[in-house]
């Protein structure tokens, strides 16, 4: 079971953005590979801290995590920044200059080239209530930029592959060095050596790719899934691809209305069925069920079918199907039918006489939401 992100950073669930940033910096410096050479556990803790910070430092992701836990980010691609280069490309500024960047050879040192990262892509995907209840796997077509076949790169002659331009300046305190990203290669340390005819000026081309996305049971409208490495690629050797962000759009069901993990169904019956009692077959997401309605059932009666709703995204059980009974008042009666009801107007059996056990509308609503 994955460890809680707040526990990883050793902060409370009410921690501010500044407190979370400070806590991450503390953890990252504690487990930094430069301070723990060859320590695999320290490296794993370093990655976990980056994963926790990525979620808790983003208001939208943090809200999803607080509501759904780790299940909010489970998807086909899975995972967060799995390499040190990836982590430092996102959070290198968090270290306040104590470590310059990732060298790619097991250590951290100054003057190293920047590993370029491609842009994230965002798509919306429509899912049915059936998909939400049972879980599903969707295949979507995405147009993304990838490095063209045959493109080659060479070391940038301006910065000699460091990705930085170092200058010495005279100050009142003596000679000091300043470093800035190379303007020729934009910090990558590489420039294009050969570009195929089907590539753009960065050596990239657009391709259409079919990507599989797992939809976890219990997913909700607006939840964002991430498929790692399926966004646009970036130019250069050893560059990192962006992510594909999949936003869930829930399709409205024809007869069932969703409310969190519960489903609601309006069942209409006639006066005769309400008076005599009957049984009705109801179509649920997982199949048909038959329910029995007792004699004299009242309009507004609420029946609860346990476990026939939507599974919890966190895996904590399944909601219910709530059936609302509505007695349908007939229209356009014949004269004979009207005469029957005129005769019943003063009949004691037809005079409203609610029992103490019969709950009012407001009591039913209160009970339903409790």
UniProtKB/TrEMBL annotation:
Instruction: Give the protein's biological function.
Output: Participates actively in the response to hyperosmotic and heat shock by preventing the aggregation of stress-denatured proteins and by disaggregating proteins, also in an autonomous, DnaK-independent fashion. Unfolded proteins bind initially to DnaJ; upon interaction with the DnaJ-bound protein, DnaK hydrolyzes its bound ATP, resulting in the formation of a stable complex. GrpE releases ADP from DnaK; ATP binding to DnaK triggers the release of the substrate protein, thus completing the reaction cycle.
List residues of the J domain.
4-69
Instruction: Give the cofactors, semicolon-separated.
Output: Zn(2+)
Q: Which residues bind Zn(2+)?
A: 156, 159, 182, 185
Where, per UniProt, does this protein localize?
Cytoplasm
Molecular-function GO term, any one: unfolded protein binding
Q: Key word Cytoplasm present in the record?
A: yes
Domain of life of the source: Bacteria
What does the entry's free-text domain comment contain? The J domain is necessary and sufficient to stimulate DnaK ATPase activity. Zinc center 1 plays an important role in the autonomous, DnaK-independent chaperone activity of DnaJ. Zinc center 2 is essential for interaction with DnaK and for DnaJ activity.
How is this protein organized at the quaternary level?
Answer: Homodimer.
Keyword check for GTP-binding, yes or no.
Answer: no
Cofactor: record remark:
Binds 2 Zn(2+) ions per monomer.
GO terms (BP aspect): DNA replication; protein refolding; response to heat
Q: Name one GO cellular component term.
A: cytoplasm
* UniProt keyword annotations, A-Z: Chaperone, Cytoplasm, DNA replication, Metal-binding, Repeat, Stress response, Zinc, Zinc-finger
Q: Which family does it belong to?
A: Belongs to the DnaJ family.
* Native source species: Capnocytophaga felis
The protein in question is named Chaperone protein DnaJ
């Amino acid at each position: 079971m994955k460890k809680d992100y707040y526990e990883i950073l050793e902060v409370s669930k009410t921690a501010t953005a500044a407190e979370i940033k400070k806590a991450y910096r503390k953890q990252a410096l504690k487990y930094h590979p430069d301070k723990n050479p060859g320590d695999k556990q320290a490296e794993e803790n370093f990655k976990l801290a980056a994963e926790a910070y990525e979620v808790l430092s983003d208001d939208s992701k943090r809200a999803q995590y607080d509501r759904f836990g780790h299940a909010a980010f489970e998807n086909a691609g899975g995972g967060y920044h799995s390499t040190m280069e990836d982590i430092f490309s996102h959070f290198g500024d968090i270290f306040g200059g104590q470590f310059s960047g990732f060298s790619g050879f097991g250590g951290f040192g100054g003057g190293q080239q920047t590993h370029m990262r491609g842009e994230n892509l965002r798509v919306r995907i429509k899912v049915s209530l059936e998909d939400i209840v049972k879980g599903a796997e969707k295949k979507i077509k995405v147009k993304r930029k990838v490095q063209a076949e045959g493109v080659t790169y060479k070391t940038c002659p301006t910065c000699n592959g460091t990705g930085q331009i170092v200058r010495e300046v005279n100050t009142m305190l003596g000679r000091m060095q300043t470093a800035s990203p190379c303007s020729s290669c934009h910090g990558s340390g590489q420039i294009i050596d050969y570009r195929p005819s089907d590539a753009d000026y960065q050596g990239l081309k657009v391709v259409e790719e079919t990507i599989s996305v797992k939809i976890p049971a219990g997913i909700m409208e607006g939840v964002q899934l991430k498929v790692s490495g399926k966004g646009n690629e970036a130019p250069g050797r050893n560059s990192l691809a962006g992510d594909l962000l999949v936003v869930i759009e829930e399709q409205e069901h024809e007869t069932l209305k969703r409310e969190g993990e519960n489903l609601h169904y309006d069942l209409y019956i006639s006066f005769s069925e309400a008076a005599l009692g009957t049984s009705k077959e109801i179509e649920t997401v997982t199949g048909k069920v038959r329910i029995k309605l007792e004699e004299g059932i009242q309009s507004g009666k609420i029946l609860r079918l346990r476990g026939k709703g939507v599974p919890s995204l966190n895996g904590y059980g399944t909601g219910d199907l709530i059936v609302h009974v509505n007695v349908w008042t007939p229209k356009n009666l014949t004269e004979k039918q009207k005469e029957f009801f005129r005769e019943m107007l003063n009949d004691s059996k037809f005079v409203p006489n609610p029992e103490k056990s019969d709950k009012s509308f407001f009591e039913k609503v209160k009970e339903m939401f409790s």
